[in-house]
UniProtKB/TrEMBL annotation:
GO annotation, biological process: hydrogen peroxide catabolic process; response to oxidative stress
Residues covered by the Catalase core domain: 36-427
Residue ranges the record marks as coiled coil: none
PANTHER family noted in UniProt: CATALASE, CATALASE-B
A Gene Ontology cellular-component term: cytosol
The keyword 4Fe-4S is annotated on this UniProt entry: no
Its job: Occurs in almost all aerobically respiring organisms and serves to protect cells from the toxic effects of hydrogen peroxide.
Protein residues bound to heme: Y374
Enzyme class label: oxidoreductase
Organism of this sequence: Hermanssonia centrifuga
Protein name: Catalase
Residue positions of the active site: H86, N160
Source species, domain of life: Eukaryota
Length: 711
């Protein structure tokens, strides 16, 4: 058994949940290891269509070949419609649990109040705009859809990595999605919002201004799905045992902090490794670094609904955390990859309307429409019996009088399928015994097509977000909007959006307008209120202790490298929970001086050759000592490019002994300091370039590399 297999088995054994056990009954029995048709008949030849042939010439193929026909029929119908949005995604299993019962003051839902429970969980992350085959690292919102298989039924929190949305009322959803999706004339662009139609729409729909700021910030290009915050976005409600109701927003906060790529990296990885995020999630789980989030809630008692200058049911607004702090309740861990993509990640189906007793909806007009839409879309995608699919069925019993429909699997033996019935079959359950109880909400009004008065203000929070970013984050945001508007060639579009930006911030509008040839304002369209909140900058979520856990670190070597240092570095990185990759002039054994070349002994196995991987897919890299090796790296244009590219992406770069001289020559920038003194074990850290002169300092250099990569 290989190490990876052993590891996989270990991980699998460790994460058996009630849902994983439930899925086992549908896992195919592959123990027989022979080939049959779908009706179970053993097949003797899967490679040749039945023909009339003399053995020398092909001859006509016969329609009679039921085995060939079945194979082709099955293939012809393999595809189902991809999701109309969020088509590209990746999923993983895990669990959710709360730390204590503190939430019982807000809700009687055991999933949120019973610390002895571990609730099986499946999460699907996604991009929104692109098709199923689009790239992972595009600038986009990320879906963060959580299915909690509770003992009271499935609870889906269908959220995003951004806490607000483009529109306030569901009736606008087809418009925003048509606008952002590839344009109807030529189906361009794929995986991009950088086109006329999107910016045309958002320019005419100022309620989207806040969300546009978020998507154009670094949040739109996450480093990893594991380093994103998650938000329920919509306002839900909680009801406690005393019947009191609270408005609530749901939050997921990643253990490793919130990290993003740089735009240049995202663009390059889109081509170099379009599955970067999928692979990252799988790699981390398989290497024993499960993805982890804390779960928190913001709560507003029903009586305080109207205390704010924004409407708490407006999904284009956050609830500022200085006014309503997040209360941490528990954690979610994803520690198991799927066994099969299609049956799990593709067939999983989420519904905002799936809630459990103790949790309710609010009048949030975006949520109300979503509650209709998700169930509806699953019927198109998966058929009316989609809730019976293994990944979707609850772990608690399902008993009702719903019957028939295409692809019905469940067999109900009873002869009554209606209520009331003479057998008292499937009676409704009173709330005191767990039946879902709707909150008795008083409603009054005039039937009309309107939005609430406070829904009319669109710029205060866009400004709050912009004000809360660090200068570096603002620069990134300005570059991102400039990139996108540069791709709009309709003057009306980029001129009107640069005008809109002046409602958010004068400097922002000015700089973008200069960059893209828009309308450069001479004074602010409205004053900046100057308010900011610390938690809106992603730097706020830095882990308390810097960590290299699950980071990808490359060691660059050529023949003649220093083996002692490489071994020391690998051990140090492993101890810190990082994965180490050796990159060399070829995939295969690379030898230090003195080793017997060709023996494999005393060498290090390079996982990739210099052309096979680029610096972009690593978080940091280091160059060990060794005179011959350092010279070989210096003679290679690709390794020099590695250094310059990684430096440009603000990545930590380390070098030891002779490796330092190579690094200095490659970076070639004034102001960066190095320790090139082969006698000195002083660690010099300058602009993220960490150098040390002597061999004894190898471990020190490894420690120094633990600088967090925040850019
Ligand atoms: Fe969705 N959304 N959405 N959405 N959404 C879908 O449902 C819809 C919205 C989100 O991994 C669809 O199963 C409407 C907000 C995620 O399977 C569809 C409105 C948020 C996913 C749909 C919204 C989301 C979807 C397409 C406006 C963040 C992927 C396939 C009222 C809170 C779930 C599907 C997965 C998917 C409708 C707005 C998140 C068509 C009508 C706001 C994460 O039903």
């Amino acid at each position: 058994m290989s190490l990876t297999q052993a590891l996989k088995q270990k991980v699998t054994a460790a994460v058996e949940t009630k849902k994983i056990a439930d899925l086992q009954r549908d896992i195919a029995n592959e123990s027989g290891n022979y080939h049959t048709t779908d009706h179970g008949v053993k097949v003797a030849d899967t490679d040749n269509w039945l023909k009339v042939s003399d053995g020398t010439h092909a001859g006509p193929s016969l329609l009679e070949d039921q085995i060939a026909r079945e194979k082709i029929h099955r293939f012809d119908h393999e595809r189902i419609p991809e999701r109309v949005v969020h088509a590209r995604g990746v999923g993983a299993h895990g669990y959710f649990k709360v730390y204590d019962d503190r939430a019982s003051k807000y809700t009687y839902a055991p999933v949120l109040t019973d610390p002895s429970r571990s609730t099986p969980t499946f999460v699907r992350f996604s991009t929104v705009q692109g098709s199923r085959g689009s790239a992972d690292t595009v600038r986009d919102v990320r879906g963060f859809a959580v299915k909690l298989y509770t003992d009271e039924g499935n609870w889906d929190i269908v959220g995003n990595n951004i806490p607000v949305f483009f529109i306030q009322d569901s009736i606008k959803f087809p418009d925003i999605i048509h606008a952002v999706k590839p344009e109807p004339k030529n189906e361009v662009p794929q995986g991009q919002s950088a086109h006329n139609n999107f910016w045309d729409f958002v320019g005419l729909q100022p309620e989207s201004a806040h969300m546009v700021m978020w998507v154009m910030s670094d949040r739109g290009i996450p480093r990893s799905l594991r380093t994103m915050q998650g938000f329920g976005v919509n306002t839900y409600t909680l009801v406690n045992a005393a019947g009191e109701r609270f408005f609530v927003k749901f939050h997921w906060i990643p253990e490793l902090g919130v990290h993003s790529l740089m735009w240049d990296e995202a663009l390059k990885i889109g081509g170099q490794d379009p599955d970067f995020h999928r692979k990252d999630l799988e790699e981390a789980i398989k290497n024993g670094a499960p993805a982890k989030w804390e779960f928190g809630i913001q709560v507003i008692p029903e009586a305080n609904e109207h205390d704010f200058d924004f409407d708490i049911l407006d999904a284009t607004k956050v609830w500022p955390e200085d006014l309503i702090p997040v209360e941490i309740l528990g954690e979610m861990v994803l520690n198991r990859t799927v066994d099969e993509y299609f049956t799990e990640t593709e067939q999983v189906a989420f519904c905002t309307s799936h809630i459990v007793p103790g949790i309710g909806f609010s009048d949030d007009p975006l949520l109300q429409g979503r509650n209709f839409s998700y169930f509806d879309t699953q019927i198109t995608r998966l058929g009316i019996n989609w809730q019976e699919l293994p990944i979707n069925r609850p772990v608690c019993p399902v008993m009702n009088n719903h019957r028939d429909g295409a692809q019905r699997h469940r067999i109900n033996p009873s002869n009554v399928n209606y209520w009331p019935n003479r057998e008292q079959k499937f009676p409704p359950v009173p709330p005191s015994e767990g039946g879902y109880q709707d909150y008795a909400q008083k409603v009054q009004g005039i039937k009309q097509r309107v939005r609430g008065a406070k829904f009319q203000e669109h710029y205060n929070q866009a400004q709050l977000f912009y004000n809360s970013l660090t200068q570096i984050e603002r620069n990134h945001l300005i570059s991102a909007i400039s990139f996108e508007l540069s791709h709009c060639d309709d003057t009306v579009v980029y001129e009107s959006y640069t005008k809109l930006l002046n409602n958010i911030d004068f400097e922002l509008a000015k700089q973008v307008a200069i960059n893209v040839g828009g309308v450069v304002p001479d004074k602010p369209a409205r004053p900046n209120h100057g308010k900011s909140v610390p938690n809106l900058s992603q730097l706020y979520y830095k882990p308390k202790q810097p960590t290299i856990k699950s980071r990808r670190i490359a060691i660059l070597v050529a023949d003649g490298f220093d083996m002692v240092q490489v071994e020391g570095l690998r051990a140090a990185f492993k101890a810190g929970g990082a994965t180490t990759w050796v990159i060399g002039p070829r995939r295969g054994w690379i030898y230090p001086d003195g080793a017997i070349v060709g023996s494999g002994k005393g060498g290090v196995w390079a996982d990739h050759h210099f052309e096979g991987q680029r610096s972009t897919t690593y978080d940091a890299f280091i160059i060990p000592g060794g005179a011959k090796h350092a010279q070989a790296l210096a003679d290679n244009g690709r390794t020099i490019h590695w250094v310059r590219e990684a430096f440009g992406h603000c990545k930590p770069i380390g070098a030891i002994c002779e490796g330092v001289a190579f690094l200095r020559e490659a970076v070639m920038l004034p102001g960066v300091e190095y320790n090139t003194n082969l006698e000195s074990d002083k660690v010099v850290n300058s602009y993220g370039v960490v150098t040390v002169g002597t061999i004894s300092a190898a471990n020190l250099a490894a420690d120094a590399l633990k600088i967090e990569q925040d850019q």
